[in-house]
C-alpha cells in the first residue's frame, strides 16, 4: 500500500523543509503533509539507509582504488573462514 507510493520532487523538498523545522516529529510532519505517520517515518528511514549505503559504497570504492585485495577462503569443518590479505598498491 503505502510502500509503493512514489514521493514527488515537491514532496521531497517539503519533507526536507519540515524535517529541519520539526526535527523527527513525524506525527506533526505527517499532519502538515497530509500523509500517514508510517509513510513519513518510513520515508525518513529509507533516505537514511540510502545515504548510509552510498557512503559505504564510496568508502569501499576509495579503499579499492588504494589497495589490492586478495580474498582467500579456507574451509575448516564446513565453516568458511575468510582471510583478507591487503597489499598497499605501489604507485
Automatic annotation (TrEMBL):
One protein family per Pfam: Myb_DNA-binding
Domain SANT: 6-52
Cross-referenced CDD domains: SANT
InterPro entries documented for this protein: Homeodomain-like_sf, SANT/Myb, SANT_dom
Protein's name in the database: SANT/Myb domain
Organism, as annotated: Hexamita inflata
Amino acid at each position: 500500500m503505502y510502500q509503493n507510493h512514489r514521493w514527488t520532487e515537491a514532496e521531497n523538498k517539503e519533507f526536507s523543509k519540515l524535517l529541519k523545522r520539526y526535527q523527527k516529529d513525524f506525527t506533526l510532519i505527517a499532519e502538515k503533509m497530509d500523509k500517514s505517520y508510517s509513510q513519513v517515518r518510513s520515508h525518513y528511514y529509507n533516505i537514511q539507509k540510502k545515504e548510509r549505503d552510498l557512503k559505504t559504497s564510496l568508502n569501499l570504492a576509495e579503499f579499492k582504488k588504494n589497495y589490492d585485495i586478495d580474498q582467500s577462503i579456507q574451509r575448516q569443518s564446513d565453516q568458511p573462514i575468510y582471510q583478507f590479505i591487503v597489499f598497499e598498491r605501489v604507485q
